[in-house]
Amino acid sequence: MLQLGNLVLSERRAIIFRKTGIIADLHLGIEGVLEEKGIAIPSIQIDEILHEIYSLIEEHGLRELIIAGDLKNEFGRNIPGEWADVKRLIENLREVVDLRVVRGNHDNYLQTILSGYGIALEDGAQIGKYTVVHGHDDSPARRIIMGHEHPSIKIRHAGAIYRYPCFLHCKSDEREVWVLPSFSRFFTGSNILEGNFLSPILDGFRAEEIEVYAIEDEVYHLGNLKILGNVV
C-alpha cells in the first residue's frame, strides 16, 4: 500500500480514508451475461471479491465500505446470477461493515435488490473533502473519487507485454480527481496510453496533470501520463 496524505492506495484496488474503504466496478453477475453469449464459465468472481473485501476490512480496520458504482453488470434487467451475487455480498457484509452504494451506469434496477436490505442507491457520497461518484456523469464537486474508467497501463519490456491496473491522480488548479481501478478481475482495464477517457469529469486534464500509480505486489508511482506516453 502507499500512503499519500490522508489517503491510502491499496494493492487490493481500493482507496482507504481513515476507516472507510472505497472500491468500484465489481460487475457482479458478469458470468451470467457471458453465458447468455455462449461463453460458459463458473460463477467464481463473488468468492474472490468477498475474500478481497474481508482482507481490506481486516487490514485497515474498516467500519464503512463505499462501492463507487457498477456493483452489478447487466444494464437492462436483473439476471438471476447477478441477483444472487449481489444478495450474497450484502448478506455477508452487512453485519461486518456499514455498506453504501453509489449509482453507476450499469446499476439500472439495482435499487430493487437493495431496497430489501434498507440500502439506498446514492448519486454520490461525501467522505472527508472528497465526493465519491461513479464518473459516467459530470459532477460539480472539485475533489472527487470515482471509478468507471477501469484504468490500466500496458508496458512492453524485453519482448514481453505486461498490463497493470492502476490508480490515476488528476490535479489541476480547478479540480482534483482520484480514479479507482476496477475491483473485478474480469476487467483488466483500458490502457490509458491508447485513447481518450470516457468520463466528462476528466475532460480538460492535460497529460502532465495525471499521475499514474500501478498495482502489482505493491502500489508503484510510475510518473505522469505525458512522460509515460513518451517512454512506454
UniProtKB/TrEMBL annotation:
It comes from the Archaea. InterPro entries: Calcineurin-like_PHP, Metallo-depent_PP-like, Pesterase_MJ0037, Pesterase_MJ0037-like. Transmembrane segments: none annotated. Pfam families: Metallophos. Residues 20-136 form the Calcineurin-like phosphoesterase domain. This is Phosphoesterase. The lineage of its organism: Archaea, Methanobacteriati, Methanobacteriota, Archaeoglobi, Archaeoglobales.
